[in-house]
């Protein structure tokens, strides 16, 4: 019972932190934010469905961005090529799918919604792969899962 209360408190705090997290870019005045764009129905059912299996038959669980608890947050800097190619003030909304292993390492990351520029996508992937998360859990046991992380990038 105590573990369940602790998990609920940690989950709630993680959600609050994630929704209020702003990652400030260090290039000019550009910034990026991690946001959760899921609805309440999705959040309440997070982690309960197996969506597919990996090649070696391991189960891969789907988690919402609100379940991501960062140990080392990604430092998102706006790539110079985006600054040159995209009109100042424009907002880009890429989305990255990350596969997280049982230790919380990002084993795979791919763009599922592009910035519209290959150089920006490659830069984002490189930066996000350096982050680290607490492992996702199901019934208190660390599991391999994936999460779709939406970003908001404002071009300076």
Task: Provide key terms for this protein.
TolA/TonB C-terminal domain, elongated, about 160 residues, about 25% helix, alpha+beta, single chain, two-stranded antiparallel ribbon
Can you tell me about this structure?
By secondary structure, the protein is α+β, with helices and mostly antiparallel strands. It has a single domain (2-154), classed as TonB (TolA/TonB C-terminal domain, 2-Layer Sandwich). The protein is built from 4 helices and 12 strands. The protein has helices at 2-20, 40-44, 80-85, 118-128; strands spanning 22-24, 31-34, 50-53, 59-63, 70-72, 91-92, 95-100, 106-113, 132-133, 136-138, 141-143, 145-154. Strands 1, 2, 3, 4, 6, 7, 8 and 12 form an 8-stranded mixed β-sheet that branches. It has a two-stranded antiparallel sheet with strand order 5-9. A hairpin with a 6-residue loop joins strand 1 and strand 2. The protein starts with a helix and ends with a strand. Residues 15-56 have low confidence and may be disordered.
